[in-house]
Amino acid sequence: MPSSAHPCKSEPIGSLQIRHDEAFFIDNMTHSPSFHITEVRWQSAAPALREIRTTVFIIEQHVPETLEWDGQDDAAWHLLAITSDGKSIGCARILSGGVIGRIAVLPAWRNKGVGRQLLQAAIALCKTHGQGICRLSAQVHAIPFYQKVGFEICSPEYLDAGIPHRDMQLVTATP
User: Is there a contact between 12 and 173 (Cβ–Cβ < 8 Å)?
Assistant: First the structure.
């Protein structure tokens, strides 16, 4: 997140309830029987996470590999969307401080709720780890996606990997 980012004023969202078992199931949200979201560690899921992020960011969006593989994956929390037959179809990364990023969904699975469920699970994971504010760097075309769950823009537009972005945040807890 660029140093020029400034805080947004935001109202807290309602409390998300999360069950800790093999997968995240977010209350008040449609869960698809064709996939589920699970928390994984980079050390055990790197091949699946790399495949998705390579397809979406490096191949489709032409993000340079040196920017995509930034050395922060080992310490991050990761979410993986997995089909009922075991295929990895989407992912997200959460850095310390509640920074959500690297949300990626394979082309065949877009517009089927995978990204929304990854985002909801990322927000819930941030809350579970005591983060009262979730932050992210949104590609400008994806801003409406994040606004639907309450994220607010809190920076001017800037380029990241040659792609227009704006910082956004969501307050999830009252001060």
Answer: yes
What pairing do the DSSP bridges indicate for beta strands 133-139 and 35-40?
unpaired
Flag whether 165 is in a domain: no
- Is residue 170 within 8 A of residue 17, CB to CB? The reply is no
**Do 51 and 59 form a contact (C-beta atoms < 8 A)?**
no
Count: domains in the chain: 1
Q: Where are the alpha helices (DSSP H) in the chain?
A: 42-53, 65-68, 114-128, 143-147
Residue 42 lies in a domain: yes
- Kindly report the pTM of this predicted structure: 0.81
Question: What are the helix and strand counts (H, E) for the chain?
Answer: 4, 8
Taking Cα atoms as reference points, which of 47, 128, 58 lies closest to residue 80? 47
Each residue of 135-175: pLDDT tens digit? 999 999 999 999 999 999 999 999 999 999 999 999 987 65
